[in-house]
Design a protein that fits this description.
elongated, four-stranded antiparallel sheet, MdtP/NodT-like, alpha+beta, NodT family efflux transporter outer membrane factor (OMF) lipoprotein, OMP_efflux, membrane, transmembrane beta strand, Outer membrane efflux proteins (OEP), single chain, 12 helices
Length: 496
Amino acid sequence: MNFAQATSPLLLGATLTLGACSLGPDFEAPRSTAPSAWPTLQDKAGPSQPEATPLQARWWEQFNDAQLSSLVQRAVERNLDLQVATARLMQSRAVRSSIASEQYPSVDLNGNYSRARNSEDGLNDPSGKNGKSAFNLWQGDFTAAWELDLWGRVRREVEAADASVEVAENDRQGVLLSLLAETAHDYIQLRAVQSTLAVIRENLDVSRHSLRLSQMRLNDGVATNLDVAQAKAQVASIEARLPTLEDRQAQLINALSLLLAEPPRSLQNELLQPAPMPQTAQRFAMGLPSELAERRPDIRQAQAQLHAATASIGVAKANFYPSIRLSGSAGFQSLQLSDFGNWSSRRFAIGPQLSLPIFEGGRLTGVLKLREAQQQEAAVQYQQVVLRAWHEIDDVLRLYNASQLRRDLLDEAVRQSRVALDTARNQYVEGAVDFLNVLTVQSALLANQEQWVESSAAVSLAMVGLYKSLGGGWQSFAPPAQASAELDRGQRSKHP
């Protein structure tokens, strides 16, 4: 056989492959159902309004808190959950590379030596010794094989693998997005607890001053033991709030330490010093509604899952059709090592292999129905994820406005409570009211101050939730293409 005759099946296979089709439906991205404007842009009742301007990627910097920005950066570099998601992305890419290799011919080099003796009663003894003595056999071959992807099975498998990589990429981005929000959330709560501790200690000083005042008046004969007992009870009641808040402060510091992959209490020296609670501006950018599907990792992930499910239908359909595999080998075979490699020891084989499913007991039909049902499920899940995203954004916008209204009203309540406390204390000194009035007004001031701190924190936390629901922040860091380098860097990072 000459070279043209030997290679003609390969050329024929290449021609068939180029003209082959891909079975199954082609994926089309779902149409966006986003409204033309954010719902609350038309509602002027709230104290703040979103703007349809580009979303700030590094949204945590709007809080103007260097400590928060530092924690976010270190969390991204060190967080173990993010490193796990990065490793899963690397695994997905490796699987994709393995599947894509089926598009190309495989070429192998094989060599072996054996010493054998055949049966005297057997069919054949290649050594010509009729099984009366042992012989050596030297063999070496180049082998090549290539499946003609006539029906697009391999192409659909690669398409599904590409979509699976997108799923893993967006899973990592979702972990990153949650990490950013959780770091900001814990930090804001920590500063809120510290602000509450400051309020408690301030009121404790006031209560102790009132206790001293009541004792002085008792010594002067113008107060009773009841006034002193009530003042002592007030001091003890306020002091009792400190241990719980101090424990909550330690828990939040440890929570931030865990996000940064640090051991417990490692951030105490850095975070125990109180600092102002991060606050946000009233007007903020939200981007365009049509961009939501491009930013939220869960929507992108759901679309990639739908893509993978659609491509899998083509794989299932291609399994109904015959598969053709071209294979060939060329090498040498000899009984003596000195003859190995001679032209007379050459050998070759080439030819196609055909596989056609005839009866599978319904297995192929069942797999196809399964893949079609999985695609339907993925389509419904995509709709559900998009709908949930819009509900989440609407809810957090309303919460943000409501939290600001509550904070502003409580700010006025705190101011008036301070005036009321000063007035009640003066009247008590003058004997116009009893000490119970002072205690009642002071309790009201403490309650209003605590609620004001809570509402201020709620405003900032709602802003964090809003940016998380908009899918902002993950774009500012290393893209998935740099995942392997990031994982290696994270494993080698040393804690300060």
